[in-house]
Amino acid sequence: MIRVARPTPELSPEEAYGLQVLIDLARLIPPESPEVRTGPELVLREAPSPEAGPRSLQLLVEPEVVVEPGRVVLPRALLSGVAAIAGAQEEQTTEARDPHGRVPPDANPLVRAGLASAPILSRAARSLREAAARAAAGDPFWTVCPWPEGRRWAATLTHDLDLVCWWPLSTLARMTELAKRSQGARLARVLGSAVASTFRRPVKDAVSRILKIESGHGMRSTWFSLCESPSPRTFLARDVTYRPESALNRAILTEIRARGHEVSLHGSFATVESPERMRRQRERLGAILGEEVAGVRQHFLRMRPGVTQLGMIRAGFRYDATFGFPDRAGFRLGTGDVLPGWSARSRSVLPLEEVPLIWMDRSSSKYAGQEEPLAWVEEAASSARECRDSEGLWVGVWHPYLSDPLGFPDAPRAFEELASTLRADRPWTVPLVEVVEWRAVRRGLRVAEVDEAGVPRVTVPGGEAVPVDLESPAGDTIRVRGAPAGVHE
Ligand SMILES: [Zn+2]
């Protein structure tokens, strides 16, 4: 619980966004209206000399939160600092591009400052939550539990379906890469395995194996499928390489859905600049699946930050899972958690959830020449520990083509290791569409009143009542019924 004292001058759109993000990540519940006077008061302190850039990054690392009886005092400059990182403001305005047409990692201020490998926004939010608990000093004080089912963090495995047929061509390309890196032993194993798979469907087999491992651990994942007609041009660019309506692709998607996993769109290169293409691909995939498609991740993580997202909104997507670094594990938006999207151009919150990508299987193989799959998994595990410790969401990509005949011996065993390592720390493991749904409920919780026993009555956004778990600083947990706002019983 927290009430925000009205600041003068009024908050700028960026400050309001930063405050919303901070309160949400801190799991604090604001009142439904100013008349509900419950929880400590959050007061903003004007900085003596507002400085841009480095000062606001420093503030994110050490937020300088001050606790007074019944009040928490925050430096006002913290809010625009949070907005700059969560909203990827600099990435939305830079003209810099890498050879794939992407915004290069060092256009991100966290990368330049060496702060991209920790979820610094989640840590700042934790300082705020702990300060608010101290400021409450004996008054009723409840925060919302981070995830459903008593889980303290969430982890979702995702899979980009870049390749379905024509796999021997991909094997050849990979063999060339291995030869250049003098990986003779691996090369020989790949060749043997590829020859043995000549008349098989190794991608479909790999998908089935991944699904089986995930089911064994009680995990459900999200699969991103390309949905555009391939042409020689898209083929050569390693963009679209399979026909979405082919029998093989349909069989793969059917198996994924039959096991309760999510299928969303892998936006092809053409969607980066074309909202119309984005809309058509979403509709085409929806027609194949016979259901609405909730999310999207751009192929090769190609996007124009802030612009491609507008196309996603116009196409009807609920969330975007593209914000991750192509060349390293880390926190491109400063957190492993769901954030409301932000437009630097219109200075407004977007009706699109951002689900940052934290780790990708091939980053260290492609960019640092690390060819040992178990080393990739160690990197995944270390980024997952950061998410666990900040009670956030870890999202990783494992490409289903990482199998022996496609050039990656030892990778399937490494995937088993990854799945069991994640599960050992008991995350909530559901598809991203369900993660996003819960986070929208959690972010929209409001305190309507507090009864004599000190238990809050909470409201939720949307039209349906939802059970919500609250916890106190002492570690007590209660389950309350979150009723739709405006409905009084
Ligand atoms: Zn891809």
Q: What descriptors fit this protein?
A:
alpha/beta; nine-stranded mixed beta sheet; five-stranded mixed beta sheet; 17 helices; 39% helix; elongated; binds zinc ion
> Largest beta sheet, briefly?
9 strands, mixed
Task: Fill in the CATH topology of the largest domain.
Answer: TIM Barrel
Q: Unreliable stretches, pLDDT < 50, 5 or more residues?
A: none
Rg, alpha carbons: 23 Å
Helix content bin:
25-40%
How is the secondary structure organized here?
Elements (H helix, E strand, L loop, with lengths): L2 E2 L8 H13 L15 E5 L8 H8 L4 E3 L2 E5 L1 H10 L2 H5 L15 H4 L7 H17 L6 E2 L9 E8 L5 H14 L3 H13 L5 H15 L5 E4 L6 H5 L10 H12 L3 E6 L7 H15 L5 E4 L9 H8 L3 E2 L18 E5 L4 E7 L4 E2 L2 H6 L4 H17 L3 E5 L13 H14 L7 H13 L1 E5 L5 E5 L5 E6 L5 E8 L5
Parallel strand pairs: 1-2, 2-4, 6-7, 6-14, 7-8, 8-9, 9-10, 10-12, 13-14, 16-18
Antiparallel strand pairs: 3-4, 5-17, 11-12, 15-16, 17-18
Helix pairs in contact: 1-3, 1-6, 2-3, 7-8, 9-11, 9-16, 12-13, 15-16
This protein binds zinc ion.
Zinc ion binds next to loops.
